[in-house]
Amino acid sequence: MKHAKINSHFYDECKKVREAVGGIKNIELINRCSTRIRIKVIDITKLNLNKLEGSKIFVKTLLKDDFVQLIVNENIDEVFLNLLKSLKISYEEIPNDFEVRVNKEGNFFKVVTDGISVIVKPLIPLLITMAIVATLSNVFNGIDFGSGTLSETGQFAKAVGEMFDILQKALNLAFSIMIPWSIFKLMKGSQAIGISIGIVLCFHDLISTNDIMSGEYGDIFKWFGDASFLESGYPWKISYVGQILPIVAMSFIAVYIERFANKFDIPVFKEMVAIPMITISTFFIGILLVGPLGLLLTYGMNEGVVWATTDNVAKYIFNPILGLALPWLVITGLIQVLVVINLQQFTTFGGTTMMPMFTQLNIAVATSILAVTIINRHNKELKRTAIPSYSLAYVSGSTEPALFGVGLKFVYPVIAASIGATVGIIITTFAGVICTNGNASLLVFLSITTKPEILDKFNIHTIAGGPYLWMAIAIVATFITTFFATIGLSKIKVFKEMNAKVLERDFSVN
Predict the structure, then answer these.
(1) Helix, strand, coil tally for the chain in percent (to 5)
(2) Which of 206, 289, 364, 437 has its C-alpha lying 20 to 30 A from 505's C-alpha?
(3) Which domains does the chain have, with CATH numbers?
(4) Active site (annotated) includes residue 435
(5) In 3D, which of 111, 108, 129, 107 has the Cα closest to residue 119?
(6) What is the pLDDT of residues 485-502, one digit of tens each?
(7) What is the dihedral of CA 102, 104, 108, 114, to 10 degrees?
């Protein structure tokens, strides 16, 4: 989507759409799949769809309930981008490509999660690279092939493994540094200052949270010692690497410091004093105030989630509940909170308890859409949308096209995915499966870790059979449970009626 270009012809056609639906103020939301753009209008009496007659990019225009549906044969990404531009909506500022709310404000939590999505969006290429490098590093250094890991087979393999390990650590550092850049970019601040703040808060002379939490530098809560206040008693040398929420907070503080500094319109004073003070003041606030508080926040989040997902009793309560909620968290955007926790776990411990759960979620969502496709196998319009979306979920772990394009419309596939994901999560929880930061899809086997030093940090011991066997069993169980749950739910009267209504409304050509 981000590679789509502004096209003058498409833009002119999209302006006609804006006029035909009664203007921007008459649009509540816009969603899309691989073949259609759907516009939910507030007042259908303001529609004038005759303006779209003879359109060369919209094959057909349909009105179903309060949705105006525009069928597009090709270049739907480009058309959608031009439609957003015609509505004066910035692509960079929308949290979700598949459903854009235009004139309806969300609650506080929705605003927060949307904000996280917008901040992370420019960093997605970096996150993808991080996942691939973490997977390759695990293949060389973490997977025991029977006679040891690949890096133990020879000097060349050892060198390659070390290179991937260094690259992985460097990318973790880059991610923390780029967060301030993304926020400054979003807030129309100086991107150069954003990058410089990321670097100074993550500088190598500062002590990583991992080293502090390991006890190497003493008790985390014993701040005042025999040494002087700023030498070792007060934790002022804390690095922001891996401290995602604290560095987000510092970035916003820095943006507002910059806005305050820009109010001084005295030429020499502004260049020589005001602008340098942005980075200097941000550094001291971050090191002396937010850093120690952020360390406690990061420590508390990591320890709390690790306890909830690995404790002998708590994990059998927390993990299944989370499994039931996961598909709905994706739909509401609250999944972004878990994504942050997952990244913090990985940068702190080298592994994560979230990735096995994300994998079961993505397999369950893909399977539920596969089942819906089979149930409605005679509907070609549905298949055009569903097949690419569930294939993408199986291979890459991206479930938004499947959920927003198909699942949420029918509802019962999302319920089935909740049930199936929970079954798989119970199995991986019981077996003690831990992953690195890889691909939460069928490729997850490349991200499973058996390193004792990582498992010990979670106080986990994988049961007999090994994590690979149990992950395979969990995926099969998730697939079977989700598939038959979807078929079973589709036979219930309320869902059968809903199925017919959705097919008529969203996947018909008349």
Answers:
(1) 65, 5, 25
(2) 364
(3) 8-103 (3.30.1360.60), 112-307 (no CATH), 314-507 (no CATH)
(4) no
(5) 111
(6) 999 999 999 999 999 988
(7) -20
